[in-house]
Amino acid sequence: GEPGALAPRPVPAPRDAPAEQAAPSVEMPELTGENDRAIASCVGTARSEQLSSYVASPALLFIGDEGGATLPGFDLSPANTARIAGAAALVLALTVGASVFAGARLVRPLHALTGAAQRMRDGEQPASVPVSGDDEVGRLAAAFNDMSAHRARLEEQRKAMVSDVAHELRTPLSNIRGWLEAAQDGLADPDPAFVSSLLEEAVLLQHIIDDLQDLAAADAGVLRLHPEPVEVRELLGQVAAAHQARAENAGVTLAVTAPAPGPA
């Protein structure tokens, strides 16, 4: 039989047969190492057949052609090397050109902002810079234009305030000078009314200076207001006295008509 099959057992002799005639026996083949290998091979084959439906087919990787033919490789001949070098140089030139163009487009508005800031530092009239887009540089240019316009408005307000302060200071000083020149020329007697008028002009100057100090405190955010009642008649009298000299020079008579004394 096949290797590894069990050997048949010996057939017993019939009972009626003579004792001296024994049934022929078949010797069992001995299990050798070759038989063990055959049995293991059969078992492995059977297991492979049973598990073949659960195992994926092996993947084959062909380095060359499946038929064994040699595929053409990459040729590094001098001609191909020159082509590769030319293509690399072209790509590099395009990259450098694009970088230079983008850098110039980015730096141009920054140069404009720098020039405008330097002109503003030198005291020139601030000018707006062009806004190129809605990117970071464009928003920076828009913020600079807003700052420049705000600074121009503040400068106009400062000039107007200086002009008003000069006018307010000039009026009492002109009155004081006029009264003193009149007294020096003998046109006015230094009587108590004369001295009182000069004192009122000096007090007016002091009020203007106090107002300037209050304005500086308001700009600094430390101004404190203390409302107090004021006599309208007294206030109008101070205003009339401050402009009395100019009114007389112009031939105008100033008269104060106020209601009964009371808080303003």
Automatic annotation (TrEMBL):
Keyword Kinase found: yes
Reaction catalysis annotation: ATP + protein L-histidine = ADP + protein N-phospho-L-histidine
Coiled-coil stretches: none
Span of domain HAMP: 104-156
Record region (Disordered): 1-33
Family annotation (SUPFAM superfamilies): HAMP domain-like, Homodimeric domain of signal transducing histidine kinase
Protein name: histidine kinase
GO MF annotation, one: ATP binding
Alphabetical list of PANTHER family matching this protein: SENSOR PROTEIN CREC
Gene Ontology cellular-component annotations: plasma membrane
